[in-house]
Amino acid sequence: MLPIFGKLDALINSAKIKTENFYYGRIYPVFLALAVFLFWILNLQMVGFALVTIIGSFALIAYDDLLPTIPALLTIPMTIRKSTVFDTSIMPYIILIPAVIAFIVHNFRYKWIKPKFDALFFGLIGVTVALLAGGIGAGYAEHYKYGISFVMIAGVAMLAVHFFYTNRIKLNDKCNQKKYLAFSVTCVGNLACVQLIYALISVKLYGNAEFIFPTFCWANTNSIGYMILIATPMCAYLALDAKWVTPYAINVLFYYVCAFLTESDGATFILIALAPVLLYVVIKNATKKNYQTLKLIYLTVIPLIFILVTSLFLFNFETIKAFLFNVSNDNGRSRLYQIAWELFIKAPIFGAGVGHGYQVLNFVNFHSTIYSALAYAGVIGLLAYVVLYLLRIRLIHKNHTVLGIFSMLSFVAFGLYSLIDTGEFFIVLLYITVIITVTGVTNRKGNDDPLPLTKKFTEHELSSNVDFV
């Protein structure tokens, strides 16, 4: 090794030691969320994008463990204020160059022992191949190129995320990996919610057309609904043995309020239906010191919800009636489903291809995983997604800790909403992919002690006696 590289390596190791508490602590995801929100509201999206990229890139170089990159990975999509920036500017691609270099350095700097290829990896390959094969022999080849970017997100990118996190997250005693994951997801859930609130205020008070649905920045209001569905169980998980329970309980209630603000009736309905299950799981698995507090909180909240709903029925029944109508109404989805079915009938084996949706139909999904799979990849695509769902459930189920239960709740909520919306065909797929992957990783023997599911009360103590650094 040349002297200059030896000095550089020593400098990186020194910086790694000094920043370890930051990268494995609570401040890190909170800092990223606050910084991104600040630059986002100041319309300095590329500054936020660059900041997250640099912080994540250093973690890639300095640590053989990819766990510290999770907050950066989950936060970076939320830096985008104008979703067209990747189509109209080269700047994002220039900013990503350090991340690409850091990724290359990481893989040279830290040796690979034996790559792990689990069943879900091959399931993701199946989806990628099915999407790439979509449109074969259907006469839609001229539109094929327009779907490549989508296939990269829904197929190749998620395959890469799963593979590298499965192989590059290391078992360590620096922090509780399960809580680290849940806290990071909770932070990005909160970030999505405050962005939603800011957008709504901007539209209502200032008539800012930039935030009018459905062109809501990096996502849309339905996608924020997805984020809330995914983050709510993760936040509730943190309350089980938290030192202060009340903030997490308030955070969960905040998610419910924001679900209503999205005006996404499907997400709101699923979140309401999830409430009794979530309540049961929380009370059953809470540690003894938090059981009474959680019980008191929920015994207070439930009567308040009952009073609110009863009041609406008695004095403002039209509100309830309108909500139930919106939930039951397909909002034009039946027409989309009809188009999807017609495409499937014309090309039942491989479908019409994703590019056909981009170029001819001017949209990429049919607000349903089932119909989108059939339309764009035919029977092959539907089978690929059925297998993918089964493999996800299997991987989560193998995690014999309480995290597995809450991850399953996040995934079930995501899956149900995906029956009537964009789930598998948008950037929110990244968040559920990371949750499922890390849930699989944390099932490895030796990480930290689980909360036994066979006992109602358990004083949860980590073998390393750490929560966060």
Helix/strand order? HHHHHHHHHHHHHHHHHHHH
Structural class assignment: mainly alpha
What's the number of helices?
20
Strand-residue fraction? Answer: under 5%
Number of domains: 2
**Terminal residue distance:** 34 Å
Task: Tally the beta strands.
Answer: 0
Q: In percent, how helical is the residue content?
A: 55-70%
Main sheet record: none
| Overall form | globular
Whole-number radius of gyration?
Answer: 23 Å
Residue windows where pLDDT falls under 50 for at least 5 positions? 445-466
Average predicted local confidence, pLDDT: 81
Could you explain the architecture of this structure?
With 469 residues, the protein is mainly alpha-helical. The protein is built from 20 helices and no strands. The longest helix has 30 residues, at 177-206. Mean pLDDT is 81; it is low at 445-466.
Summarize the topology.
Elements: H1 3-23, H2 27-41, H3 45-62, H4 70-75, H5 85-88, H6 91-95, H7 97-109, H8 119-133, H9 148-168, H10 177-206, H11 221-238, H12 246-261, H13 265-285, H14 288-315, H15 317-328, H16 333-346, H17 354-361, H18 369-397, H19 402-418, H20 429-441
Helix pairs in contact: 2-3, 2-10, 3-7, 8-9, 8-18, 9-20, 10-11, 10-12, 10-20, 11-12, 11-13, 11-19, 13-14, 13-19, 14-15, 16-18, 18-19, 19-20
